[in-house]
């Protein structure tokens, strides 16, 4: 087989292999791109649906919040209260009905008067349920609420708010209406007067209406979208309505979904037909998460990949023959003909014909250089023969030297490889130790930032609520102030100014004592409903009852005035919460910026030792909350010339060990002082101390007293090497409840 044929076959094999590999890479890339695209689309669909559901639930909770607030601050006439229940849902077709369940004689104290009224118990207990007629939604029917005293789960819509005094967003359940069992979800909020539970108000959502409005379309052709309750139960399903009220998949899948719901993080799981994405979401201050599940069938991905594979193969095998033809022409003209001439020239030299001349070539390429090399070989051949005999002896003598040198070279390479592996291992251990410390700081900082963020979010919702209340009350107050006498206006303005200036909250035991004292004062002044009014005055932040507030208590508009003051008070308190939370987050971020700024400095400069210690302490104090008390005793302001990052690394290792030893709770003391021409820094923690079993190995590489997997045993070794790098020394002492690491450096006086 000729060289030309072999070269053509080799090129063909290489091109085919490369084309197949390229096609596979394109297919794999397209597959993952399609997978990522489908995931993003599914999560976007889930997030959009969760927004609609969350908005629906939030609208219901807001309507209930208005009823709750009005009925907590006043005792309306039942006919007005029933009309308010109907008004809360009659204009919003998304809600099936509204209901209220109050404890006996707690709504208005007049149960016996309404003993025969529709929507009340025979004893007059206020338990009306207003709902849309299933056949004609414009007709509103009235019945008594049922099952509310049940403790088997069917009465959770009343029993849970009564027990917890918190909002409730119930699991989907069947409730009989007009002789039919309707699958629904109940939203409920407790009504509390003067700290006492009196009843519950609620709204019902018909799940079939939710499905028709939000889950009627099937995403991704044959996929589906579903609503999951906090217990992992299908509340709505766009494809299989029969799954309503059933568990979301096998036990293993349901356990994973429940775990995802508890953490609030998106989750996906594989099924026989494709992949399902679960997107949790939170509603108001209800303590459990709901979720949207979007299913993406695998057929979507393969339908997209088929045309891509076909086009890639078609292009590959169309261009392959063209490439092979041009490669063959090029090789024949520029390679094979020149090699044939070189072969004839070499044959002539091998036959002893040293008069042969180099053929002329158009290009001075590698073959031309091959001819030149053969010519040089011809000239040197005779000289080589003459030198061969003398060289044989020299070669014999040098063979041993070459062999020994080869052994030395191999040993040197082996030592260099071993040293390189040791350096790599050391760098890996050091990087892992630093990353572990940074990971612990990041996790703690994230936790500390989440707390003020949660407080700010709650304050934002409160501000929205109180703003709406103020806006709704302003027309009434304007009318009231326009007709009030000057003394009453002065009392209103002075009280309003006092509320704006006082943002401190009175809580706990002090609040209860204040409320009792004000109630006693009001009873002495013979003020009606002294208990309720005393609770409102205490909530407004007053430590006693001034005469101006007493004057307002006797006003016939006291309920509207107090409701307005409570809303203003809520705005002030919420603004103070946001202010404190912002300050807390600013301190944490400022400490991190200082820490990261110093760790990026790679050049030597004069640096104050206490500044590097403060950079590390700032981060750990921000991340650790207030469970670790840090005591600073900086007697010396000595400076030293070093790379700032080195000292930050040293203090990070020592302080991180101290925090881990104390399990994030205890006392940390930093003492910096001068001894002669040296400066000493002591880091003392109140942890359990260094175990006796490893005390002799403290500071050695791979020696650690932490649990397996927590530390690599390189932190103190790094600290010791940094101390030695700058001419310093270190030692330590330890006993239960007190461990001290002491570092000494030559100081430069400022």
TrEMBL record:
InterPro entries: HAMP_dom (IPR003660), HATPase_C_sf (IPR036890), HATPase_dom (IPR003594), His_kinase_dom (IPR005467), Sig_transdc_His_kin-like_C (IPR004358). It catalyses: ATP + protein L-histidine = ADP + protein N-phospho-L-histidine. Its main location: membrane. It is found in: Membrane. GO terms for biological process: phosphorelay signal transduction system. GO terms for cellular component: membrane. Residues 647-749 form the Histidine kinase domain. Residues 405-432 form a coiled coil. SMART domains: HATPase_c (SM00387). Keywords: ATP-binding, Coiled coil, Kinase, Membrane, Nucleotide-binding, Phosphoprotein, Transferase, Transmembrane, Transmembrane helix, Two-component regulatory system. Residues 333-386 form the HAMP domain. Its EC number is 2.7.13.3. The chain crosses the membrane at residues 7-32. Gene3D superfamilies: 1.10.287.130, 6.10.340.10, Histidine kinase-like ATPase, C-terminal domain, PAS domain. PROSITE patterns: HAMP, HIS_KIN. One of its GO terms (molecular function) is ATP binding. PANTHER family: PEROXIDE STRESS-ACTIVATED HISTIDINE KINASE MAK3, SENSOR HISTIDINE KINASE. This is histidine kinase. It comes from Leptospira semungkisensis.
């Amino acid at each position: 087989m000729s060289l030309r044929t072999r070269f053509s076959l080799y090129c063909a094999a290489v091109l085919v292999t490369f084309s197949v590999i390229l096609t596979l890479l394109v297919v794999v890339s397209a597959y993952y791109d399609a997978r990522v695209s489908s995931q993003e689309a599914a999560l976007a669909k889930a997030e959009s649906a969760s927004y609609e559901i969350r908005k629906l639930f939030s609208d219901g909770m807001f309507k209930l919040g208005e009823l709750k607030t009005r009925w907590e601050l006043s005792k309306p006439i039942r006919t007005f209260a029933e009309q308010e229940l109907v008004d809360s849902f009659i204009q919003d077709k998304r809600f099936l009905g509204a209901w209220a369940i109050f404890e006996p004689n707690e709504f208005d104290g007049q149960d016996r008067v309404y003993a025969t009224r529709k929507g009340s118990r025979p004893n007059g207990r206020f338990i009306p349920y207003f709902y849309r007629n299933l056949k004609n939604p414009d007709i509103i029917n009235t019945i008594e609420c049922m099952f509310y005293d049940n403790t088997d789960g069917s009465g959770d819509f009343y029993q849970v708010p009564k027990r917890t005094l918190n909002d409730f967003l119930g699991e989907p359940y069947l409730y009989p209406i007009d002789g039919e069992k309707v699958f629904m979800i109940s939203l409920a909020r407790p009504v509390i007067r003067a700290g006492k539970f009196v009843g519950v108000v609620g709204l019902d959502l018909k799940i079939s209406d939710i499905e028709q409005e939000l889950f009627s379309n099937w995403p991704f052709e044959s996929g589906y979208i579903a609503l999951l309750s906090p217990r992992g139960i299908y509340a709505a399903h766009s494809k299989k309505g029969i799954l309503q009220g059933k568990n979301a998949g096998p036990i293993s899948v349901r356990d994973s979904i429940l775990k995802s719901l508890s953490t609030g993080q998106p989750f996906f799981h594989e099924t026989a037909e494709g992949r399902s994405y679960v997107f949790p979401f939170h509603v108001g201050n209800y303590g459990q998460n709901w979720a949207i599940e979007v299913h993406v069938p695998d057929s979507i991905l393969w339908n997209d990949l088929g045309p891509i594979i076909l086009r890639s193969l078609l292009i590959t095998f169309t261009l392959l023959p063209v490439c092979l033809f041009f490669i063959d022409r090029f090789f024949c003209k520029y390679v094979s003909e020149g090699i044939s001439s070189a072969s004839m020239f070499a044959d002539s030299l091998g036959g002893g014909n040293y008069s042969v001349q180099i053929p002329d070539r158009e290009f001075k390429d590698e073959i031309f250089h091959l001819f030149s090399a053969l010519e040089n070989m011809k000239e040197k051949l005779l000289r080589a023969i003459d030198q061969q005999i003398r060289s044989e002896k020299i070669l014999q003598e040098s063979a041993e030297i070459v062999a020994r040198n080869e052994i030395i070279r191999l040993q040197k390479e082996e030592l260099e490889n071993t040293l390189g592996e040791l350096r790599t291992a050391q760098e890996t251990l050091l990087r892992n130790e630093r990353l572990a410390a940074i990971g612990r700081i990041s996790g703690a900082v994230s936790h500390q930032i989440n707390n003020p963020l949660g407080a700010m979010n709650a304050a934002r919702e409160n501000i929205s609520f109180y703003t709406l209340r103020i806006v709704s009350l302003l027309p009434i107050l304007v009318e009231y102030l326009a007709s009030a006498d000057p003394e009453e206006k002065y009392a209103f303005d002075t009280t309003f100014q006092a509320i704006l200036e006082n943002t401190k909250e009175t809580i706990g035991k002090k609040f209860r004592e204040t409320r009792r004292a004000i109630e006693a004062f009001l009873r002495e002044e013979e003020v009606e409903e002294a208990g309720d009014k005393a609770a409102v005055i205490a909530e407004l932040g007053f430590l006693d009852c001034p005469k101006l507030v007493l004057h307002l208590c006797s006003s016939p508009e006291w309920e509207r005035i107090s409701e307005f003051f409570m809303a203003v008070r809520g705005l002030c308190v919420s603004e103070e919460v946001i202010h404190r939370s912002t300050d807390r987050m600013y301190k944490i971020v400022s400490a991190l910026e200082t820490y990261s700024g110093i760790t990026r400095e790679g050049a030597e400069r004069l640096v104050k030792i206490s500044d590097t210690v403060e950079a590390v302490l700032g981060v750990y104090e921000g991340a650790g909350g207030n469970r670790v008390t840090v005591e600073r005793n900086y007697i010396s302001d000595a400076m030293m010339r070093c790379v700032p990052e080195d000292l930050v690394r040293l203090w990070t290792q020592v302080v991180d060990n101290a925090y881990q030893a104390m399990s994030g709770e205890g006392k940390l003391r930093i003492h910096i002082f001068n001894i002669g021409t040296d400066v000493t820094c002591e880091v003392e923690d109140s942890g359990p101390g260094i175990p006796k079993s490893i005390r002799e190995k403290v500071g050695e590489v791979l020696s650690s007293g932490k649990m397996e997997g927590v530390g690599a045993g390189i932190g103190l070794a790094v600290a010791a090497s940094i101390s030695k790098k700058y001419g310093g020394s270190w030692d330590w002492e330890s006993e239960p409840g007190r461990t001290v690491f002491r570092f000494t450096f030559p100081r430069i006086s400022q």
